[in-house]
């Protein structure tokens, strides 16, 4: 393919879109009935050119609906835009008789909710794809209260799965040369470690040892779908604060992080790094929930980085452990917890414990093993790890590599995980096998160090002392 | 949206694709069994990253299959990748009981042929979309002989309708600054008036009074889907040869072309034109048959041109009349044809009749009315015009405006349409109405001139003389 | 020309430059002697490929010189890199004899200071042009103290005049889609009305009624040379604060701003504007002082805007009046000032006088005429207007159109111009004539209103009262 | 720098230029007097905005001048646009007195021919740079007949040396994705081995083992300045025909090409090549004669290729030997040539001698040594090699590596060099040294094989037999 040529493809559409997207909506406040009518007319049109105008009008009405009217509209979508029973019954009888492909095809068509064709036609409008993603975001906000709207969500999921097929996604590096209009979205969407302002963003992006990549989709243009932040490092990073504050740092790989030696080595040149550390992955579009991009993103970024910097040896995350603090509290509340352990954990109640060397050491000896147990052995009802971040990376084929004591000493870090962070390591040769073992047998791939910690947790649980 | 940003989105993907697309396939000649196995493995994978590799492998095998093996593969697709009756029956029974959205959704899912999920997963591969389009092209070649493969085509049509939704298409001007790799495809795909070589192409494109636009799709990159060639004119053009030979020309609008006065006025500047003449629309991808782009293309090109050259007043085609010569022959073979008319048409048998003034005049008096009748009154079994080009433009909302005697004096022109060409006029204010009348009532919008010609044809058919 | 092709031309160079520009300089602190040696070697090289390396090395040394060493280096440039008297004398004698072109050419070559060839060769280095611009910036900083360095500046001016010829400049729109790396330079370089931060920048740029354009030079890449900020308006704007705060506003054109009616009309769409108001022009590169871009910039921006928005009727500035407050103070200190006027101006000493309606009216009646006199009649030693902003716009062919009372009520506005701002109007048909009259006869083109104000000033000066 | 941003910089200018360049000139045929007047007015203008219009008008007049009028114009340029003696004399006297930098600067300014300022101002016009390059092309065509015009050429050379400084050049890869408008220029400008048509071009460019690079200058846009064609190879290529016909080929490196074993190894992948063979370097702009680009081009291309394909070991040319056949004939005409050698060369008179094995062997034994002598020992009046291609590559620091018998068996090849071609090898570590030895001492770097051949030539010259 010819990249330059493709680069320019979007011009016409996007320039026009820029204008369209900003135009003020009219001042009228329509009701859902108008929208339902517009949808009927759109479905009755022949799907050709006049449909574009009808689709645009329908979407314009939707945007101006109040929350209550949107809810009513969804109710009507559920009720009036399903498939008709008559044709389904007829198609099923025909199918039952011959059981062949043709009759199956007819049955399939008869069963397709008319919502799907409606959404496909709404997509004819300029910027229609993005509007539909926003529409699903609205819908998801209502689902908890109105579970009966779920079938609409199924239709969205079905279409979006097709439209946002990985074959249509485009990877793009984000840096300080990226347009401000994109960067402000990065600031807004960062979900793992909040970006305060433009200076903060610059610290994270605009250094020779930083990389950031995002997936985009041509039809929703400059809206990122997901992005990942990367720091180049010498050795595996164990703490997030130096990364967020923009200090180039490196630690000797292979050290026992338990020893809390954080020997930093500033790297002047990306060429000196041996490690790419993924320290934040953020999904941007609520309306695309369930359409998985993270896996593809990580693998493609690993490819990109390997090509740019062939000397990189380690691809690793520095990940939060959401839910661990709560789980830990539950353990402490559990009467069966050995008193020795109970005592060890008592220190958590001392404000600023991590600045008290003795207290900190005591807690570390107890908590790291417990964290290993939490991550390796605690499962949800599907038999998979309880921790969602672990599920994500293990499912991708990574290995639970290291538990970093005092990895995140922010307020949020203490609150959600007693200050712990975890490295998940992506070993290229093992990814496939890890992934398969995880999928087939729910096996948690982990390093010896983590395995040993988990063992120690079992001893602690039996009341053995922490050393 | 930000156009510059979008422009660069494709770089990574497309550069990689360039390499991939050219790599030689391995030398092995695999059989369809291997491919079927690869497809099963792909479906059994979890749809995540390892699926990309599986999809690539499967497509690579397909590309190396012999024609016979491809045919066998499609047979297996029909047989082994439909939907299972068991779950369908169960889902139908459940649906029958409650008739609600959830049960409908389950039934819909049960009925979806597994081919669709297979195709979606094959699309994960780099360049997968294009390979699937080529696969359907292969399939279409087999359908006539093997109509039992039709369900596969239904699946393709279903997916492609979604993937090639107009919202995903990008309009791009083609000119002499376009990369050679694209231009050679324009040469290859031109279907209406063959382009001989690069010089011929240059004559058609590289002049201030020419425009060419194509639709592209980001996932199939630099492969055009459809393109249209436009000549800017002073007055409506009646003859194709001056356009193809690159002469800038213009004729006074409103003249009775029956008078065969072709007063040319060279236009030096696009700003002097009042007419944009569409003289060739070519679909490029056989594998996208039935996914309609032409309509959207014409309307968007009209928009583009209106914006660039606000003084343009007429948007008109200069179109061929394929099938007319054959129809005319059938009339002459019909014993009921009045002898007067029969005699008038006798001249067609004289080689080079169009250079014999008297003969030409006589034929013109008879043939133009007959052509009007053919276009306006002859219908196919759906009650729509017999002529496919007429169906296309009338369906788009154009008006059958003028029948041009000796509009195409090439060998092909005489052979397919006795030298006639037709102007279909797109009047912006009438498009919607014309389209609706055509769709609802099969009304053929036509000018008074054409209507009068059709009337005269009726008289001729009754044996009245041609003047 | 083919724009897309050109777009990509820079890739290789610029990507490499990006790396080069950021690389840390070596830690050594060299002295000017090393640099002088490097310059000699560069001049002795044959100007071909090895010269690139020599040039890069010399520039790298320069960048690491201390301020004192730079000063010494310039002294050496003056002393050792002029032209040799011997060859000059010989060439002059030869010229004196024949007085022909050949001998003139030899003399010209003999007289060229070797610095010029040195600078041309330094320019071989990647990013050399930018480094030379920075070098001249350093030099300009020293000139006041060391006027003997002026000849070096002449050489720079000679070369830069050639290199930054208008034919090499490129106009570029700046908006919210511009890369952050450029935008932060806009923030830094804004000289007229300081930009506080990113939010402030966004208010100024990212609205449908704002435009910003900058000139760039390919060899110094993403460094803007000069930029202008524009607000689209309905009517001529009289006050800067609503513009800076991002309020879309408009005032009825033709009103006597003396009446201080500021009827704002928000414009929703650029298409509704009739006026483009230039409210800030900032030169970015100190090292390019004396190379004039502003004139070309304004004319090209007028062209761009006329093309985008053909309905625009007025191109006008909203300009500061630096120096007016000081001049006014000098008047007040002048004993010959009529006591009536002296009394009228007394109010200036009351803090917050502009919020006291009576005081404000009194001051307005006195100050606006005086400002007209200052702008129209006060001249410098070249017979041109004393006010530099007036010189710039009048020299460009604009008309001094309106004096806006309380046009800038910021602290800076009061301090430099008693709150006044001025509209200079660019009437396309008059520009050439105005320009010529100004150049030839120093004529100040001004509106009747301003002329009347100037007349009144003369009366006030004679002690007539202000009403 | 930010490449994407730069990419778009040109849009405005170039789009406008596209229109301007094509507009028909007016029909008037002006005389040189009008142009001289226009030039005077341009010089009298103040160099600001009105100058752009004046410059455009002057260039437009020049373009419409007849050849005779152009000649008269140049005569006037020589006579009327030099520098005035009065100011020169005065400035010299002032300089003589003080001998300081200021007075030197005044003298330098007084000596500058007014033509230089004229050309700088003509350059203000859109596309002015390109027009000036074409103007110099016209001038060069007249110089032989009118040597008195040489001072104008000096002025052009002085300015172009500054404007086309290597720092302003941009390297661009040319391939099948390059716009057709550029490719047709490559076809036109190829000077070494003529390109027949588009198919021929495609054979040379559009293969995975081909590369082509060109230098461009932003101000003359899509006009290439110089380009080089490269074939990737396994081993050093000895024959041009397989390369021109598009056969991928490779020969084992280090073989004695004297043995005429041409063991080809097709390379499927660029990654398999160890050699980049430069087989054609073409200057495109006659008007830039003497501004040297080739050297920079080769070095930058070596850099680019090394980065893309790090496994490349040899950078070598396959170069013609223009003038050798003529020199050989002079030897044969020389009565002092030993009869043995005279006899050996007799075979050249037999048509088709290269197809007669015995004859060919005999000639080869005589001619290759003579070619070595011609290239290594025959010098021009500056003591540099007589052969211009040798001067170019040796001056760049290459080594005369191999003389290829029957390297070019085209008619042109036989006619200019008895079928010989030469490999010049660029050994990165030796370039600097070779270049310096060549510059300082005119040393011809050559391989042992060539040196031995030259020795043998000396023996042959003494009448020793060829074996």
UniProtKB/TrEMBL annotation, chains A, B, C, D:
<feature type="region of interest" description="Disordered">
    <location>
        <begin position="243"/>
        <end position="269"/>
    </location>
</feature>
<dbReference type="Pfam" id="PF17408">
    <property type="entry name" value="MCD_N"/>
</dbReference>
<dbReference type="GO" id="GO:0050080">
    <property type="term" value="F:malonyl-CoA decarboxylase activity"/>
</dbReference>
<dbReference type="GO" id="GO:0006633">
    <property type="term" value="P:fatty acid biosynthetic process"/>
</dbReference>
<feature type="compositionally biased region" description="Basic and acidic residues">
    <location>
        <begin position="258"/>
        <end position="268"/>
    </location>
</feature>
<dbReference type="InterPro" id="IPR035372">
    <property type="entry name" value="MCD_N"/>
</dbReference>
<feature type="domain" description="Malonyl-CoA decarboxylase N-terminal">
    <location>
        <begin position="81"/>
        <end position="164"/>
    </location>
</feature>
<dbReference type="InterPro" id="IPR007956">
    <property type="entry name" value="Malonyl_CoA_deC_C"/>
</dbReference>
<dbReference type="InterPro" id="IPR038351">
    <property type="entry name" value="MCD_N_sf"/>
</dbReference>
<dbReference type="Pfam" id="PF05292">
    <property type="entry name" value="MCD"/>
</dbReference>
<dbReference type="InterPro" id="IPR038917">
    <property type="entry name" value="Malonyl_CoA_deC"/>
</dbReference>
<feature type="domain" description="Malonyl-CoA decarboxylase C-terminal">
    <location>
        <begin position="167"/>
        <end position="426"/>
    </location>
</feature>
<protein>
    <submittedName>
        <fullName>Malonyl-CoA decarboxylase</fullName>
    </submittedName>
</protein>
<dbReference type="InterPro" id="IPR042303">
    <property type="entry name" value="Malonyl_CoA_deC_C_sf"/>
</dbReference>
<feature type="compositionally biased region" description="Low complexity">
    <location>
        <begin position="245"/>
        <end position="257"/>
    </location>
</feature>
